[in-house]
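User: Let's play a game. I give you a shape written as tokens, and you guess the letters that built it. Ready? Here's round one.
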């Protein structure tokens, strides 16, 4: 994980059963650098995630901020390349460039937006051969 340094803009938190997710979410939302904190149900609904593979809480950092465990567990002194991250709301829009015509994409006013996994359909089925 050289390019991330074990840090990211999207993190899931697993809680012991006796701990209230609502109380933890309220505390996390008050931390500097946190853009969003949601319980499992709300996060999975919003981001179309499988709830059995996501923690009790989803935390997303603000732009130019990353999340990790503890400061002393992230020694970045050994990095020889720039640190980068992904998963935050500010990082969701990614341009797609093709050297051929792409047909059949949803229009901007259709309400459907392309997701990262849609690239397979676009590349295999919507890029013109000529």
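Assistant: Ready! My guess for every position:
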């Amino acid at each position: 994980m050289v390019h991330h340094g074990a840090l990211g803009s999207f993190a899931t938190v697993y809680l012991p059963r006796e701990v209230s997710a609502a109380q933890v979410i309220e505390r996390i939302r008050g931390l500097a650098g946190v853009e969003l904190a949601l319980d499992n149900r709300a996060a999975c609904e919003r981001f179309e995630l499988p709830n059995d593979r996501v923690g009790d809480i989803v935390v997303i950092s603000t732009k130019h901020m990353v999340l990790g465990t503890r400061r002393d567990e992230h020694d970045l002194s050994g990095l020889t390349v720039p640190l980068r991250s992904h998963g935050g709301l500010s990082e969701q829009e990614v341009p797609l460039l093709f050297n051929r015509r792409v047909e059949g994409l949803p229009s901007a006013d259709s309400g459907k937006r392309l997701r990262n996994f849609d690239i397979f359909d676009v590349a295999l089925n919507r890029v013109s051969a000529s």
